[in-house]
Amino acid sequence: MGLEEKKQVPFRGTAEQERQLLDFIEEHKQVGGCLMPIMQKAQEIYGYLPEEVQKMIADAMGIPMEEVYGVSTFYSQFHLMPKGKYEISVCLGTACYVKGAGDIYNKFMEQLGIVGGECTPDGKFSLDACRCVGACGLAPVVLVNDEVYGRLRVDDVPGILAKYETEDEGGAQK
């Protein structure tokens, strides 16, 4: 399978998560403008908004699935795919891009075996492109969770990933 193909992620929600969401919907569905807070709560519970959760919201609120999907794809705060413990964001804004961020992004995809928007099967890393993080003087820039890495080269990617592998194994901490 080529890196450009999106992998289907099986949904693994629990009965407890479903009960928690349905209880929240029941408490809030009569309030005007409640869809966004309900979707935010669903993402807090599940970590993302897979199709199954969006359908659950639509059914419980008596609204079309298209309405929930439209909101989930319009607002960047909502994620349709799971996120990893370490969320990698490669800035592809103009300053970063002209200094090689595209090649860095491609190296992350190669090293992780995923494409942008995906999460590694072990749940450790997810990868996304973003636009301008406001650190143009450090271009090209990558964020791993809230840690900023600047003035990067393609050769830096394996070391960045190794740092987080080491942390998970109980090695050196940040």
Radius of gyration: 18 Å
- Count the helices. How many? 7
How many individual β-strands?
A: 4
Low-confidence stretches: 1-5
Mean pLDDT: 91
Helix content: 40-55%
Taking the sheet with the most strands, its summary is:
4 strands, mixed
Assign an overall shape. Answer: elongated
Order of helices and strands: HHHHEHHEEEH
* Derived structural class: alpha+beta
- Proportion of residues in extended strands: 5-15%
Give the neighbour order of strands across the main sheet: 2-1-3-4
Straight-line N-to-C gap: 35 Å
Characterization of this structure:
This protein is of the alpha+beta class. It contains 7 helices and 4 strands; from the N terminus they run H-H-H-H-E-H-H-E-E-E-H. The chain has helices spanning 15-28, 35-46, 51-61, 65-74, 94-98, 101-112, 157-168, and strands at residues 86-91, 125-130, 142-144, 147-149. The protein has a 4-stranded mixed sheet with strand order 2-1-3-4, with helices on one face. Helix 1 packs parallel to helix 3 (51-61) and helix 3 (51-61) packs across helix 4. The longest helix is centred in the N-terminal third of the chain and has 14 residues, at 15-28. The two termini are 35 Å apart.
